[in-house]
Write a structure and sequence with these properties.
The chain has about 325 residues and is α+β, with helices and mostly antiparallel strands. It has one domain: Chorismate synthase, AroC fold (4-Layer Sandwich). The protein is built from 8 helices and 15 strands. The strands form 6 sheets. Strands 6-5-7-13-8 form a 5-stranded antiparallel beta sheet. Strand 9 and strand 10 form a beta hairpin. Helix 2 crosses helix 8. The longest helix is centred in the last third of the chain and has 23 residues. The protein is globular, with a radius of gyration of 21 Å.
Length: about 325
């Protein structure tokens, strides 16, 4: 939760300060689950609803103001983006953290990092092949990357764009280690389906790819196919273009996927829009407090959706609780 929380001291983050302290209301007793639904509340502490009064009926380009107003017949709450806000990734992260603790009992670990910010690219998991210790250290960096040399360029790029009143997008790569062979189902209930469904629940996510992803469309079958071999009496593949999933089912190789996150739509640069009430063209320039790069704080959220999806699949098959 602290890794996701907004802070003016974090690169690309809004100037808002939210400690994201949570109060567990039910479901946990003396540090253990009680068997009842777990409910927790995280209160907003640093909010300025007045920032949205001047743009209540102005559709911010790239934002869901327009679609939300039509869908909910103007009863939607425009303050902070309402339920289209990235603020809703806080409960996703809370749920994911619980799932993470359960998965760790089975030796399953999930890590994500910034794969790219604009045109600045980090190393890939498949090329770097970091150890668990290196991955744990990576998670605690100011910007979660494998190659420390790109932290300064990323910081400079985001800071410069923020001063210009603009924002930038990025990609987040996630790896899930230790998932046993045979988890998942074909067609509509595959691991890719479940991860993708949850990943698109993160505001700003516009694309998901597994393994080689879209790059496999340029490959030959002989290049894309991952050849099998035996290692320590287990079946493995020499490469991992399939991202640890074949036919919607885990292969025992690391599950690897990439998430594309768009630039923050709310920027201070002047843009053309429409007043949804008067249907007249107007200009808009927002002056609220918004992230100049969503991707930086999205890293633990992407880990969370992976943990929720994987644990859901495992429990569905009765692998944990003797089903």
């Amino acid at each position: 939760m602290s890794r996701r929380a907004p802070s003016p001291h974090k690169v690309g983050s809004t100037s808002r300060t939210e400690p994201d302290k949570f109060k567990v209301v039910s479901g946990i007793f003396k540090g253990k689950t009680a068997g009842t639904p777990i409910c927790a509340i995280t209160q907003n502490e640093d909010f300025r609803p007045a920032d949205y009064e001047a743009i209540e009926f102005l559709a911010r380009p790239g934002h869901a103001d327009f679609t939300g107003s039509i869908r909910y017949k103007f009863f939607n709450d425009p303050r902070g983006g309402g339920h289209f806000s990235g603020r809703l990734t806080a409960p996703i992260t809370f749920a994911g953290a619980i799932c993470e603790q359960i998965l760790e009992l089975k030796g399953i670990r999930t890590f994500a990092h910034i794969s790219s910010i604009g045109d600045i690219k980090d190393l890939k998991f498949c090329t770097k092949k970091p150890t668990i210790t290196q991955l744990e250290e990576m998670s605690q960096k100011s910007i979660a990357v494998l190659d420390d040399s790109i932290i300064a360029p990323i910081t400079e790029k985001i800071s410069r764009l923020a001063k210009e009143g603009d924002s930038v997008g990025g990609t987040v790569e996630c790896v899930v280690l230790g998932v046993p062979v045979g988890i998942g189902s074909p067609i509509f209930d595959g691991i890719e389906n479940h991860i993708s469904c949850l990943a698109f629940g993160i505001p700003g996510v516009k694309g998901v790819e597994f393994g080689a992803g879209f790059a496999c469309a340029k490959m030959l079958g002989s290049e894309n196919n991952d050849e099998f071999y035996i290692e320590d009496e287990k079946i493995r593949t020499k490469t991992n273009n399939h991202g640890g999933i074949l036919g919607g089912i885990s292969t025992g190789m690391p599950i690897i996927f990439n998430v594309a996150i768009k630039p923050t739509p709310t920027i201070s640069k002047k843009q053309k829009t429409v007043n949804l009430k008067t249907l007249k063209s107007q200009e808009i320039s927002t002056h609220g407090r918004h992230d100049s790069c969503i991707a930086i704080r999205a890293v633990p959220v992407v880990e969370s959706v992976a943990n929720i999806a994987i644990l859901s699949q495992i429990i569905y098959q009765g692998e944990f609780f003797g089903g």
